[in-house]
Fold these 2 entries.
Entry 1:
Amino acid sequence: MALRPRLIDVSIAIYPGMCQWVGEEIVATDVLSQTPDDVANVTRLVLTSHTGTHVDPPRHFVHGGSTVDQIPLDRWIGPCWVSDLTQAEDEVTAADLEAAGIPDGISRLILKTSNSSLWENTPDTFNDRFVGLSLDGAQWVVEHGIQLVGIDYLSVGPFHTTGTETHLTLLENDVIIVEGLDLRDVQQDAYELLCMPLKLRNGDGAPARVALRGPIILAMDAAQ
């Protein structure tokens, strides 16, 4: 019997004191009931819609854009390509993407950068020098018909340069975003992306449990 492709959890855990976007350090838990004194364990969770591993729909930056609950699940689930861009410094540029050997027809692109090492070395500390996607890199994504892009830190856009512009270029062109991935155990290859955002009504974002199944054989119709 052939072995099934393995399932790799690429989500980061949510807990008080975790790495959060600067100025948003609000993750908290509050025990409402606890065994053995109570009949059940129930905890109240406080967080933002962009905590940990999460998704950005157009509404995050685009007034009147689509919200999380309006985006079909099959946009978040399906074949993807993980591109090893760990040699990129500061930003992943259009030139980096052009040289990366990304297969034609890919509709979901996951960027593995040196950021993934931050989840091991400084997991609870926000690092504003993370590697992001440059503005011309975002334009490359749009021009190549990619419909989803993921990255291994809390923002697809660089902190000190084009953070807003990168988001706008993607989201205004209906390229949805997955952020906060942990890709330490993932090699460059084709996988099945399994991303399940919380169904928040009118959500500008949502935490998600994300996994990669594979590697898989990339079909010619991967963009479908």
Entry 2:
Amino acid sequence: MDTTTEPFSDELARWLGSDGDKTLGGLQKFFEERTFAVAIVLLMAPTALPLPTGGITHVFEIATVLLALEMVAGRRTVWLPQRWRQRPLGPRATEKAMPALVRIIRRCERFSRPRGSRLIGRGPTWRVLGVILALLTVSAAVAPPFSGLDTLPGLGVVLIALSILLGDLVIAAVGLLIGIAGTALSLAVGTAIVRAVRDLI
């Protein structure tokens, strides 16, 4: 866990305003051991926010699932294919989604407290959070296209990853509830669409 006194939102804003590469590789150099949570927050920000993304969210969701599975395996250092490490996050993410995300994070920081922070860094909790992050990311990825139903599971992923950075399991619980609600809504709408198509056939 990070021991600096600078709020994470300020660190993120500083990284966005820096001259360094806005890639996953550049992210790892800047945030070091916190890269897992920071990368998941940034990768899922375009999904969690109702902004046009040009279809790039599926690439980010695949990377997020890979990171979550690495957490399940107990890894503490991020491994990604070299091609992904060098891939720019893109102006839609760095200029639109992430500045909006910084504002959301600052609101969370006002209410965040170190609740359960010792548990978050431990192996069993780390693995369980990895499983939850992977499942919610898949839920966002398979939501009916152009429905906006990927937003709630995506927001749940962002909040859970943010809870790791802030050391607050209450935020993780809120993220889990939002993710479950979004997944249930997506399943309900998807089922309704399938039934409607069957009736037409």
